[in-house]
Amino acid sequence: MSGNTFGSIFRLTTFGESHGPGLGGVVDGCPAGIPLDESMLQLELDKRKPGQGGLASTARKEADKVEILSGVFEGKTTGTSIGFTIPNTNQRSHDYSTIKDVFRPGHADYSFTAKYGFRDYRGGGRSSGRETVSRVAGGAIAQELLRSEGIAIYAYTVELGGIPVNAYDFEGAQDRPYFSPDPDIVDVWNDRVKDVKSQGDTLGGVVEVRATSVPAGLGEPVFDKLDARLAYALMSVGAVKGVEIGSGMNASCSLGSLNNDPIGPDGFLSNNAGGILGGISSGQDIVARAFIKPIPSISQEQSTVTTDGIATSLSIGGRHDIAAIPRINPVLKAMMAMTIADMLLLDRRLGVRD
Amino acid sequence: MSGNTFGSIFRLTTFGESHGPGLGGVVDGCPAGIPLDESMLQLELDKRKPGQGGLASTARKEADKVEILSGVFEGKTTGTSIGFTIPNTNQRSHDYSTIKDVFRPGHADYSFTAKYGFRDYRGGGRSSGRETVSRVAGGAIAQELLRSEGIAIYAYTVELGGIPVNAYDFEGAQDRPYFSPDPDIVDVWNDRVKDVKSQGDTLGGVVEVRATSVPAGLGEPVFDKLDARLAYALMSVGAVKGVEIGSGMNASCSLGSLNNDPIGPDGFLSNNAGGILGGISSGQDIVARAFIKPIPSISQEQSTVTTDGIATSLSIGGRHDIAAIPRINPVLKAMMAMTIADMLLLDRRLGVRD
Amino acid sequence: MSGNTFGSIFRLTTFGESHGPGLGGVVDGCPAGIPLDESMLQLELDKRKPGQGGLASTARKEADKVEILSGVFEGKTTGTSIGFTIPNTNQRSHDYSTIKDVFRPGHADYSFTAKYGFRDYRGGGRSSGRETVSRVAGGAIAQELLRSEGIAIYAYTVELGGIPVNAYDFEGAQDRPYFSPDPDIVDVWNDRVKDVKSQGDTLGGVVEVRATSVPAGLGEPVFDKLDARLAYALMSVGAVKGVEIGSGMNASCSLGSLNNDPIGPDGFLSNNAGGILGGISSGQDIVARAFIKPIPSISQEQSTVTTDGIATSLSIGGRHDIAAIPRINPVLKAMMAMTIADMLLLDRRLGVRD
Amino acid sequence: MSGNTFGSIFRLTTFGESHGPGLGGVVDGCPAGIPLDESMLQLELDKRKPGQGGLASTARKEADKVEILSGVFEGKTTGTSIGFTIPNTNQRSHDYSTIKDVFRPGHADYSFTAKYGFRDYRGGGRSSGRETVSRVAGGAIAQELLRSEGIAIYAYTVELGGIPVNAYDFEGAQDRPYFSPDPDIVDVWNDRVKDVKSQGDTLGGVVEVRATSVPAGLGEPVFDKLDARLAYALMSVGAVKGVEIGSGMNASCSLGSLNNDPIGPDGFLSNNAGGILGGISSGQDIVARAFIKPIPSISQEQSTVTTDGIATSLSIGGRHDIAAIPRINPVLKAMMAMTIADMLLLDRRLGVRD
């Protein structure tokens, strides 16, 4: 397996399975002098815990205590690589007999087995969503770097189970269930979740990620466009099946006269571009949306086959989340943060010369 | 500027501006023994020419003759890096006085200037769509490699100006105007284009790209998921504002019971996953869609500012395309081909050991 | 800081300072199915401990207990990234007052300060030789991979303090003081070390590294020649000031008729090439030598300046090693092992196609 | 084949065989605003031509006219990737019958065949020394970048056929035969070359490369040490079998008290370190030496085997160079220039933050 490193200048390399001794990572390329301690990483990790807000995730206990092993001295980064670990503490052995020998629809079971000749049925191994704790920790470091540049990152739910929000208070969203920017939608979503859950089903949604106060000029004009890097970052999170920038999909059925953002003496008069023109940041908010598929583990009966190819049916019990939202939000936030941190450092290197 | 190299194993490095002596690139990492000659690259380049099918692109003459300088001997690749050039022949000096000192809405003018302190107003320089000829040539080489593995790539238009197709003959699409999989939609699209053109406006659309006979097992489970790499590849093409895999956006408002692809003894019973599970190919067709924004150059009056920040209005004359489709199709095809070639070589390296 | 990752396919990313909580690393790209457990890493780490063989290194106690956190299941690699940590246990606070405010000659003090604006005077921080424990652990993993291919790596001392060996039993060297291939030289070297130590001075030497049973064909013909990668790997170890391959330096004053290796029906008749021709392995033993400078910390008085640029003199007390040999040997062994593992995986990817 | 790209930030990707239509490359990552035109590249390319100074190289005619296709506008770099080509003009078909079916001792014939299953007997193909023209062109661009920073690079011969120089006028060396820093040695070397040539033999030598006015702080402390990168760069040139930095090999038999460079109020009092401490530049001249093996093509009879393994003997006729020096000097100069340019841009990115 390869591809366990993310980024070109600000680089996160991760390791860890859902059922090994622990997970962790190394951040290379973080400049010296950034205020950082474990509490800042823990804050983001806690947002990813189950049972945070809304009814979509079940209240399992997962400690996820992070320890920083290097790269920080007296509360500031030293510029050296930052190593961190997150021990696995919640590995009570489930009964996997029901899924051990079948390919779960919607999961990586079949494709992973095709690639590696085996799979870790105890929760997906490296393919488990648990892998994302290392991303969240790395993203927290990126967010501290960005904060020192005045840049803030937000990830808030704009649609759940087909029900969109009517308000966009993304700053307040951080403290609401489902990280909702609309206070009034929470109960509606709760009802929808309860309803779907009662049918033994699951649902998806849409998460909008936003970066504010990003300077104009980030991104490279050809392959490493800022939007291309963002699409890669967000789509690399399991369950994400689509990514759009600014007006995105809607731009495809719009007209040039409507989709172009007119410019006035005080700047752009709209932001259909999502803050990116020709792959380079324009100084407006960077706005992207990730489309999340429903959790594939459902208790309803599904047709599948055993690992020997024999037709069978499967009902996945146990306490599974009903939606990847809101636990996926801090992960998407982390991916946008690391992407912008990377492009920021990349740009510092090669702008016009002084 | 950086980011002029695409891919990790099968790597394309490109160069060239719209108004310099020429463009070209180097393909590194292509195995030896692949049948290749210039005609195979020319075939794809010709599909990108203006005035091919439909009324959306104007019939300017662009030679785009490619020459291969290395890496091919007696009709086969030697395994060494393949250098190719495409001279610029169509550089009759336009009158740029109207756009020289203003920021064109929807173009990279403002962001590029913010990054580099200047811009090449003579057609966008490195940000010009002309840069994509090198991608098409590199993609043609990737397609020959994939062909030797039995893999074929298709790029066909499934929606133009908000009008979707009703048929999906993607094999026949290669020979139809707009690379349309639906013979009956061409006239409808032509009328739509004429109508929009008469209003001095432009339109966008949706292009579906598909890879057939891709073996299961391509893609890496964490950051370098096949869908993440594809999203990066497609979004790196100018005018693309959204990318989805399989059921994509629709998955976000679906249910687990509907979106999961059941499995039978003969394989998957549907393909909502778009051929990718957990970031790894499943053996089904790889299906992605790119959402294309309208061409930003319109003859309608638009509000903008001069490079000095003075409010003004702009009408862009000249013979501009009305839609990026169908000229963008071979570019998207090339990006998918290079991505799958890269993942194929990446996987060969690190699968289960013999 | 960047550059904390080594290798392209078999990749080691390291972290850790001499005085932080711990050190460690992540190995990405190791295939699945390689027998591996912590004892194999510990074995190599123990060879790097002080007080092993000979009088050149002092007998400080350093536990250096390694823990593997991921990538290994039931005694075999799973193909996922392998994370490991090595806690710092021996951090009793020294008295640094004598060196805190002066630049030590021969150390990185001045250049590191020039780069980062500060330095970690408590043992060099990231520039400390302690950083190499992560290399040794990563190299141990590479050696298991190579062992599964029948390849063995050796690092033995061929010269110490200007005194060369007269025998080359490199297999037996692993169990001798100074990792000496010559049993009779050990006492001579011990006398030399005692003598130099009594003068408050230090000395250097030459370590030969060798890989046996390496298949012909490893290495890329242009920039990534096997010898170029090896030179990079060995020179990246502190204290190494020169690297040669095969006849190396001597080739420069030889003649073509003497330096060429004639070929017979049973293979090459000599190995002046050190097993590498045109950057590609020839199937003979890969032989390289690293030239090690004397330990810069000496108790003799040296002229230097304070961090404020005031002239002063410095005598470095405490229990310092007299030579980097033999502790540097397992580090050089690790660097050669990771380099060959990397080129092996690189070559598997892109040879002639089947 | 892979490994046709050199550098991480300032990146050169090359292509071209000795007998194809042409060679060339792409430089990515060169900042905007550097004065550049083809004459600057041509100047360095001309230094690599045969028959320049001394009797070691024969006076074949090779045009090597370079053309820049992109990245330069009105005499300055634009920051976009710089593409250049060098057509092959001197491909008169030799008679290869003598070498077609035998492995030439000292050449890559055997190892290349083992890797790729074939070889290009018409001059080595990608393994030919001709490949280095692209390096020289790329290095010329790097030297212009360095010049704008006040940094100069020199490559001069300090030993030929075992005869060392007695003077070190490296600035004057650029205009002397063999790029000799010692005017009085030229005749001695000429006699040596004549003598060896008359015996149908060849010889090697030592080239010293030097960078002046390099700021302190370049290089990364762990794997990407400046000396490690330099060793990689120089060793990647065919015929180089050893690399040393500063006192290099001699340091291994010296003492700490002699090898350490004392520091005074006005800086270092000697430069045994070769301008690099802990992998980071110290502000002194960067000094490295490359040890060059004799040209393997000799007219004396050598024992070898046919490609079928049958014992035979070989005498290589034709007009071959007697030594790689002085044609290799501009290549080594180019490699050092690109390495320092790369580290310079790398360092700009990640020093201490403002």
TrEMBL record, chains A, B, C, D:
Gene3D superfamilies: Chorismate synthase AroC. Its cofactor is FMNH2. Pfam families: Chorismate_synt (PF01264). InterPro entries: Chorismate_synth (IPR000453), Chorismate_synth_AroC_sf (IPR035904), Chorismate_synthase_CS (IPR020541). NADP(+) binds at R48. Keywords: Amino-acid biosynthesis, Aromatic amino acid biosynthesis, FAD, Flavoprotein, FMN, Lyase, NADP. The keyword Flavoprotein applies. CDD domains: Chorismate_synthase. This is Chorismate synthase. It comes from Pseudodesulfovibrio nedwellii. PROSITE patterns: CHORISMATE_SYNTHASE_1, CHORISMATE_SYNTHASE_2. Its EC number is 4.2.3.5.
